[in-house]
Design a protein that fits this description.
The chain is an alpha+beta fold and 304 residues long. The protein has two domains: 159 residues, MutM-like, N-terminal (N-terminal domain of MutM-like DNA repair proteins, Alpha-Beta Barrel), CATH 3.20.190; 125 residues, Helicase, Ruva Protein, domain 3 (Orthogonal Bundle). Helix content is 23%, strand content 23%. It has seven helices and 13 strands. Strands 2-11-5-4-3 form a five-stranded mixed β-sheet, with helices on one face. Strands 1-9-10-6 form a four-stranded antiparallel β-sheet. A two-stranded antiparallel ribbon has the order 7-8. A hairpin with a 4-residue loop joins strand 9 and strand 10. The protein binds a DNA duplex (16 and 16 nucleotides) through helix 6.
DNA sequence: AGAACGTCTCGGCCGC
DNA sequence: TGCGGCCGAGACGTTC
């Protein structure tokens, strides 16, 4: 579920953990955790050895830094270890501050969803810090991953090594964007935008919103884009991502901030999940199609 | 019933 | 026939 703006929102919300020391790690779902640069084979996932190794890598270590790369949250720990967390479709990280009486969290974004007390039946990992702060990992769909990796092995983490450029990096530009996506000249631009090895962090919502902002049809082949198209794509991409981060992301599905509150960028979606509603620019009904297996929303008049 | 914001694996196809 | 690149389908739990 979460894309760059949501993961960035979570990473920023976790900055308060820097300096705290882990005292206890409870793993209720061993299949979510692994140790080392390679992902665990499904066969070994149910052994308890890797759970113990995961706990051992974390316990008694201090959080030195929390950062984001693409859609990964990176905890740098003391003692040369990192934790790489991918929330996939439905992962949530919430933090209960020391002394905070209880934490209520909406596990689903449906209007009638109940607030649930932490930990809930969807809480699969609980990390306790020496000062009493608690981190809960919730995951309705059990797709998320927590990997403990030694610093020396970071370069051997396949997905991390393969990520394309960060769209909000200081040195990112229309030229960098063009060079990155042109590695797949025949791919529809929408699919290229969401390919993490070409460009980091953009998923379905922000690809649709970016292409609307850039007035480009999602099916356009990468190689068909002209100089002016690249320029609008670059500007649209940064504008959409920056606005989404400022509003703490889109709380579609299950995304929430670390204090349990929701992001409000969903209010500003111009095409995503707006099939049949009118285009905010020209009034034409928004269309939905399937591209590369994902729902794709666009204005048939504005985007060409 | 069909779809959901992510990614990985597998199998088929194309071209050298 | 062999190999790599490329691409689409399916799989992964669960909920509404």
């Amino acid at each position: 579920m979460p894309e760059l703006p949501e993961v960035e929102t979570v990473a920023r919300g976790l900055q308060g953990l820097v300096g705290k020391r882990i005292t206890r790690v409870e793993v209720r779902r061993p299949k979510l955790v692994s140790v080392g640069p390679k992902t665990l084979s499904p066969k070994r996932q149910h052994s308890q050895l890797h759970t113990r190794a995961f706990q051992k890598a974390l316990v008694d270590r201090r959080i030195a830094k929390v950062a984001r790369r693409a859609k990964l949250i990176q905890f740098q720990l003391s003692g040369g270890w990192w934790i790489l967390v991918h929330l996939k479709m439905a992962g949530q990280i919430v933090v209960q501050q020391k002394g905070q009486r209880r934490l209520l969290v909406r596990l689903l974004n449906s209007p009638h969803a109940q607030l649930e007390k932490m930990p809930s039946k969807h809480t699969h990992i609980i990390i306790r810090f020496t000062d009493g702060t608690l981190l809960y990992y919730n995951d309705l769909r059990l797709f998320g991953t927590w990997r403990a990796v030694r610093s020396a092995d970071l370069s051997r983490v396949a997905d991390l090594a393969a990520y394309g450029p960060e769209p909000l990096a200081r040195n990112f530009s229309a030229k960098v964007l063009q060079a990155a996506l042109r590695r797949r000249p025949n791919m529809p631009i929408k699919q290229a935008l969401t390919d993490q090895t070409l460009l980091a962090g953009v998923g379905n919502i922000y690809a649709d919103e970016t292409l609307f902002a850039a007035r480009l049809k999602p099916t356009r082949k990468v190689k068909s884009l002209k100089l002016a198209d690249w320029s609008r794509l670059f500007t649209g991409l940064q504008k959409v991502l920056r606005h989404a981060i400022k509003t703490h992301g889109s709380s579609v599905g299950e995304f929430i901030r670390v204090d349990g509150s929701v992001g409000t960028y969903g209010r500003y979606h111009k095409v995503y999940d707006r099939k049949g509603k009118s285009c905010p620019r020209c009034g034409t009904p928004i269309r939905r199609m399937v591209l590369g297996g994902r729902g794709t929303h666009y204005c048939p008049r504005c985007q060409r």
